[in-house]
């Protein structure tokens, strides 16, 4: 394969190449460029001077004033609804050029709008779309480059009226007509189709040169040269010709080339490739009135076409390895252009013999067959090794011609890149030894024979000699922000040992999570583990490398629930053992599954850390209490609901869930039915923050509205009043019933049109009863109260709200006893006790407060330590009863005050369910 010298590729003096002049100094008063833009924000004006700041709106405006040497830069993107006529001329070496004002993109005229060059000279048109055709009339030295033109059933390009030296290159056209005495027209590297006409028709146009075009014809001759078109040249073209077509209007022969007798004088043809349709014999030549069915007879009769190639199928002219058009053209033919239709360079295919003139490798037709290098694949062995170890880098590309490839390997440590070539094989190999420890990136750049480049990178680690060092971080895994669907258990931690330094790659990682659970992994991975309960755990990570070396490290991991926002939902009933599941048995734990995948109020509880429930005990066979916890404990130290034999008592419960989304309930003794209502949940990275407020009374039917009758409802304004913002999403309220006339239940809910089948409070005659509820805020900032039977007075005290301007996030805890006056002495009437044990930074606390051994009717009030005692109540105490209540209260200096009313003395038990910290 012998390359042809570049100096032999062009016939000197045949065509003058036009273009934007380089280094030519423009007259001081004439700007080098005029600007055109029809974009809305362009500030354009056809009355201006075409500056970049105030461009012309139309191409025509610029065409009317352009001077020699000026470039008209046209903003692409929006079609220009105008027919454009160019009739001003440039000068030799100083053409008037029309080009896009952009790195990429073409300027488009609207459909039906024609581009005309009339009576002009030294004009360049580049990267234009003309959907109304292009006409060159009576003009000279005009270059059309990268033009896309269509004009319906008409020829998309017409050169006529005596035009001279018109050059059309690298364009996509549908029918070309050169006529009217035009001289020295050049068509080069174009894709031209003819449908109901010839692809190219030359009539009375001497000296026309048609070189390296791909022409397809359906009717008549694909290329027709007639009239006085003598001394024309047909070189390096590819003709695809149909012998028959139903769309043709006449039965004219389907020749690849037709040269009439009047045009044959001085006309030359060689190195063309012609094909027909599969199954039909092509009739390639009609020369000077005689038809020739093969190249041999044509050559023998005319002396033309010595190197022409005929094929029976157009498929053989396509771009594929081994096509007869590859590396077989005449690079010295008139009008040869070294870049193809798409701007790609001439390239030598190493798999095809160079059969072009003088061993040249120019391809026939408009396109040059390319390597199409797209990617390089790199392997590094070993990619992790101690310093001084030889590292081998192997590269292979998807090049069609691998033997032309070179690979530039940069090892990323400041040493000079290594250039390697695969020779006759598909792979290239480079070797290197790193002198210092560190993480490096090896970059391999693959370069093919035409200079096309692609790159790929691979990380490599050079490690110190000697034993390795294991290290890991343990980070809590939280649900993505706002994602309430994917199930992610609380107390889940990720163990990342990527910061470890091992001499060789890690083959095995063993993790002891510190709670009796061990896991082994192949290679170095991020391990994930969910703990059963909060605490401090000694976790150990052991790494074993590929050479058998080991390294181990142990550290303490602090496991706790993550701060969480509250997600308010439409309440739903989860369990009612009166109708399903049977009664609870004393001493036996019972599991209740939370709705992990149940949509409630347009959200799900997939990543919940804690839940808010209303738990009711009824039908107890003896005095007893119920404990709710996140784990299956034999004897919980806390309680949530206390009930007398035969009675009904409810309480709100806030409790973490376990890894399965379950909570556990244990009745202390006897038997009882349990009713569990799901009110909402807390989840990290979701929901609303909480703002505690000093207990404030919102409603009291004893002073306004009267008792609530059975089967009736009453609204209570809760948002936009008493310091609760109008956009609050939910409120925490303490509900108290008094003077009930019959056993009943009360429901607090947000929307009067949709009352849920749950309960929040169970009034009884002769007893003041309290329960806290977290209620979503309904329309107009209200909540609704419903009394099922009899009548009862209701008191509503607000203790906080959840909303966009909330301050605090909830930190769940496994239920924990903070204080019990049964071990320190009763709380006297009017006295206050201080409950400590909360974090100093806590803004609020969620407690289960229990009054027992009460000597007289009264109430307890929980409030922030150091603040004034409010008038509202947190719990109603009754003699002879043990009364619990869920309480949300502000915290001061890590403490809560609990004040007793003047009704009687009480023992007070305080259990911590969680606390709020600044969010």
Briefly characterize the structure:
By secondary structure, the protein is mainly β.
Structure description:
There is one protein chain. The protein is mainly β. The protein has a 17-stranded parallel sheet that branches. The protein has a ten-stranded mixed sheet with strand order 3-6-8-10-13-16-19-22-25-26. Strands 29-35-34-31-32 form a five-stranded mixed sheet, with no helix packed on it. It is elongated.
Oligomer: single chain
Which stretches of 5+ consecutive residues score pLDDT under 50?
1-28, 598-604
State mean pLDDT (0 to 100 scale). 90
Tell me the number of helical segments per DSSP (H or I, 4 or more residues long). 2
Distance between the termini: 75 Å
Question: Mind telling me the C-alpha Rg?
Answer: 45 Å
Structural class: mainly beta
Strand content: 35-45%
Q: Report the biggest beta sheet as strand number plus sense, adding barrel if it closes.
A: 17 strands, parallel
Q: What percent of residues adopt helix (DSSP H or I)? A: under 10%
- Tertiary shape: elongated
């Amino acid at each position: 394969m012998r390359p042809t010298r570049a100096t032999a590729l062009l016939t000197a003096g045949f065509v003058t190449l036009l273009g934007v002049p380089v280094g030519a100094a423009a007259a001081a008063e004439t700007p080098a460029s005029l600007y055109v833009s029809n974009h809305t924000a362009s500030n354009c004006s056809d009355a201006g001077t075409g500056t970049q700041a105030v461009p012309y709106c139309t191409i025509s405006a610029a065409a009317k004033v352009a001077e020699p040497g000026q470039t008209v830069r046209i903003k692409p993107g929006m079609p220009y609804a105008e027919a454009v006529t160019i009739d001003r001329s440039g000068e030799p070496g100083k053409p008037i050029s029309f080009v896009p004002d952009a790195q990429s993109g073409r300027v488009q005229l609207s459909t039906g709008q024609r581009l005309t060059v009339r009576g002009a000279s030294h004009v360049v048109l580049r990267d234009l779309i003309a959907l109304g055709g292009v006409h060159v009339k009576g003009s000279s030295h005009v270059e059309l480059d990268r033009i896309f033109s269509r004009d319906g059933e008409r020829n998309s390009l017409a050169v006529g009226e005596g035009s001279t030296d018109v050059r059309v290159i690298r364009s996509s056209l549908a029918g070309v007509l050169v006529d009217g005495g035009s001289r020295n027209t050049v068509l080069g590297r174009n894709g031209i189709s003819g449908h109901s006409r010839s692809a190219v028709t030359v009539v009375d146009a001497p000296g026309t040169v048609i070189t390296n075009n791909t022409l397809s014809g359906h009717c008549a001759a694909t290329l027709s040269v007639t009239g006085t078109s003598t001394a024309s040249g047909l070189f390096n073209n590819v003709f695809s010709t149909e012998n028959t077509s139903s769309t043709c209007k006449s039965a004219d022969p389907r020749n690849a080339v037709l040269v009439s007798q009047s045009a044959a004088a001085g006309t030359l043809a060689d190195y063309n490739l012609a094909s027909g349709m599969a199954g039909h014999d092509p009739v390639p030549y009609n020369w000077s009135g005689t038809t020739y069915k093969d190249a041999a007879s044509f050559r023998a009769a005319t002396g033309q076409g010595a190197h022409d190639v005929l094929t029976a199928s157009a498929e053989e002219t396509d771009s594929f390895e081994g096509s007869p058009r590859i590396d077989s053209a005449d690079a010295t033919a008139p009008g040869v252009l070294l870049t193809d239709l798409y701007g790609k360079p001439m390239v030598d295919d190493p798999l095809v013999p160079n059969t072009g003139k003088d061993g040249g490798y120019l391809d026939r037709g408009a396109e040059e067959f390319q390597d199409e290098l797209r990617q390089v694949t790199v392997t590094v062995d070993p990619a992790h090794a101690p310093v001084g170890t030889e590292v081998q880098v192997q590269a292979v590309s998807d090049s069609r011609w691998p033997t032309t490839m070179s690979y530039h390997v940069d090892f990323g440590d400041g040493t000079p890149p290594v250039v390697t070539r695969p020779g006759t094989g598909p792979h290239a190999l480079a070797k290197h030894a790193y002198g210092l420890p560190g993480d490096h990136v090896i970059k391999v750049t693959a370069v093919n024979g035409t200079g096309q480049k692609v790159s790929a990178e691979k990380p490599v680690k050079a490690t110190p000699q000697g034993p390795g060092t294991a290290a890991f971080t343990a980070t809590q895994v939280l649900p993505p922000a706002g994602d309430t669907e994917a199930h992610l258990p609380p107390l889940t931690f990720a163990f990342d040992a990527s910061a470890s330094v091992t001499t060789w790659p890690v083959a095995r990682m063993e993790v002891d999570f510190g709670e009796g659970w061990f896991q082994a992994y192949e290679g170095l991975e991020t391990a994930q583990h969910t703990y059963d309960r909060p605490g401090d755990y000694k976790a150990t990570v052991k790494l074993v490398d590929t050479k058998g070396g080991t390294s181990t490290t142990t550290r303490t991991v602090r496991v706790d629930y993550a701060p969480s926002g509250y997600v308010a939902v439409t309440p739903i009933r989860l369990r009612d053992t009166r109708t399903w599941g049977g009664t609870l048995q004393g001493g036996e734990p019972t599991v209740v599954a939370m709705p992990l995948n149940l949509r409630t109020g347009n959200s799900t509880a997939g990543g919940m850390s804690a839940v808010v429930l209303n738990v009711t005990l009824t039908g107890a066979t003896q005095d007893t209490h119920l404990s709710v916890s996140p784990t299956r404990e034999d004897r919980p130290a806390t309680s949530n609901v206390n009930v007398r034999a035969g009675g009904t008592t409810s309480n709100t419960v806030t409790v973490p869930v376990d890894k399965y989304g379950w909570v556990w309930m244990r009745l202390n003794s006897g038997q009882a039915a349990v009713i569990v209502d799901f009110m909402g949940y807390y989840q990290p990275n979701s929901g609303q923050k909480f703002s505690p407020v000093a207990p404030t009374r919102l409603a009291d039917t004893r002073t306004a509205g009267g008792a609530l009758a059975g089967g009736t409802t009453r609204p209570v304004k809760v948002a936009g009043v008493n310091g609760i913002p109008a956009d609050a999403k939910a409120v925490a309220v303490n509900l108290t019933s008094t003077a009930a006339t019959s056993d009943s239940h009360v429901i607090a809910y947000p929307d009067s049109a949709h009352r849920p089948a749950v309960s929040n409070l169970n009034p009884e005659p002769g007893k003041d009863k309290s329960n806290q509820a977290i209620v979503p805020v309904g329309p107009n900032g209200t909540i609704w109260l419903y009394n099922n039977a009899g009548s009862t007075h209701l008191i509503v005290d607000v203790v906080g709200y959840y909303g966009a301007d909330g301050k605090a996030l909830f930190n769940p805890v496994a239920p924990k006893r903070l204080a019990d006056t049964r071990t320190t002495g009763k709380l006297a009437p009017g006295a206050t006790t201080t409950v400590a044990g909360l974090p100093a930074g806590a803004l609020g606390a969620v407690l289960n407060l229990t009054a027992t051994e009460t000597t007289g009717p009264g109430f307890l009030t929980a409030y922030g330590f150091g603040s004034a005692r409010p008038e509202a109540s947190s719990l109603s105490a009754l003699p002879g009863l043990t009364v619990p209540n869920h309480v949300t209260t502000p915290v001061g200096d890590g403490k809560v005050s609990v004040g007793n009313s003047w009704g009687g003395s009480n023992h007070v038990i305080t259990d911590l369910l969680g606390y709020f910290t600044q969010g």
